[in-house]
């Protein structure tokens, strides 16, 4: 399995850039998507993230890493999604106080392994893709889904299956998009604490039966991307290996408290 999330990987000598806030969209009661315009943005790949730095008037600064939620489109506009951490130094401002027109510094893109690239017309179409996200771990996976949609037929119409584990409906990121996913994308939401009316699956954490029912068989050799808290990622990766998936086809990204 290929593991990501090491801060600074792939950054090299990249400079800090100024990001201007164009739009703020509330995703859940405690999370927001920020649409940014970044002067000098070099472009990115679906699955990468950025470092965000806030600097106070007295010169004190703090920085945190956030996944890119947007697919690369050749412009200077990007999106990040931020979950508020009550005792955090950066997320409370980004979720609760930032306004359109505000500016802060970002650096990136960061990361080289936890990425998905659509096939070009001259390449053999990529194998099917399985995306498994826990909580806010859905953010970089959403960028991959958007990249697949943007590639369209030129990307070989690679089929995607998405399993999204979340505590309750109010905590679902990008709910409207999952209700109407792009062509070739199948989305299954798994609830651990409270489910919407009519849900047939028992409440609980993701199981090997969920992967059997909604993922890809190992013989299809899908590329698997897992993102979420460490225990979630390790559990899902172990279940996939137990079902015969090659570790080399499983890429993981973990997050946790700073």
UniProtKB/TrEMBL annotation:
<keyword id="KW-0408">Iron</keyword>
<dbReference type="InterPro" id="IPR017927">
    <property type="entry name" value="FAD-bd_FR_type"/>
</dbReference>
<keyword id="KW-0001">2Fe-2S</keyword>
<dbReference type="InterPro" id="IPR008333">
    <property type="entry name" value="Cbr1-like_FAD-bd_dom"/>
</dbReference>
<dbReference type="Pfam" id="PF00175">
    <property type="entry name" value="NAD_binding_1"/>
</dbReference>
<keyword id="KW-0411">Iron-sulfur</keyword>
<dbReference type="InterPro" id="IPR050415">
    <property type="entry name" value="MRET"/>
</dbReference>
<feature type="domain" description="FAD-binding FR-type">
    <location>
        <begin position="14"/>
        <end position="116"/>
    </location>
</feature>
<dbReference type="Pfam" id="PF00970">
    <property type="entry name" value="FAD_binding_6"/>
</dbReference>
<dbReference type="InterPro" id="IPR001433">
    <property type="entry name" value="OxRdtase_FAD/NAD-bd"/>
</dbReference>
<keyword id="KW-0479">Metal-binding</keyword>
<protein>
    <submittedName>
        <fullName>Ferredoxin-NADP reductase</fullName>
    </submittedName>
</protein>
<dbReference type="InterPro" id="IPR039261">
    <property type="entry name" value="FNR_nucleotide-bd"/>
</dbReference>
<dbReference type="InterPro" id="IPR017938">
    <property type="entry name" value="Riboflavin_synthase-like_b-brl"/>
</dbReference>
């Amino acid at each position: 399995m290929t593991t990501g999330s090491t801060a600074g990987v792939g950054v090299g000598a990249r400079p800090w850039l100024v990001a201007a806030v164009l739009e703020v969209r509330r995703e859940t009661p405690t999370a927001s998507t920020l649409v940014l315009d970044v002067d000098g943005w070099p472009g990115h790949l679906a699955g990468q993230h950025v470092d965000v730095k806030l600097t106070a008037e007295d010169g004190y600064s703090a920085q945190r890493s956030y996944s890119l939620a947007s697919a690369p489109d050749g412009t200077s506009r990007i999106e990040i999604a931020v979950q508020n951490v009550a005792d955090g130094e950066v997320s409370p401002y980004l979720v609760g106080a930032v306004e359109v027109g505000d500016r802060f510094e970002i650096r990136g893109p960061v990361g080289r392994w936890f990425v998905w690239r659509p096939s070009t017309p001259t390449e053999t179409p990529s194998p099917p893709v399985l995306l498994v996200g826990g909580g806010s771990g859905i953010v970089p996976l959403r960028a991959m889904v958007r990249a697949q949609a943007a590639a369209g037929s030129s990307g070989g119409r690679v089929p995607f299956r998405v399993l999204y584990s979340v505590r309750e409906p109010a905590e679902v990121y990008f709910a409207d998009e999952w209700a109407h996913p792009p062509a070739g994308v199948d989305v299954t939401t798994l609830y651990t604490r409270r489910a919407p009316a009519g849900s047939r699956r028992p409440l609980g954490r993701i199981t090997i039966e969920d992967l059997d029912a909604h993922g890809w068989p190992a013989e299809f050799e899908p590329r698997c991307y897992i993102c979420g808290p460490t225990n979630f990622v390790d559990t899902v990766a172990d279940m996939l290996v137990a079902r015969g998936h090659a570790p080399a086809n499983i890429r993981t990204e973990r997050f946790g408290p700073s």
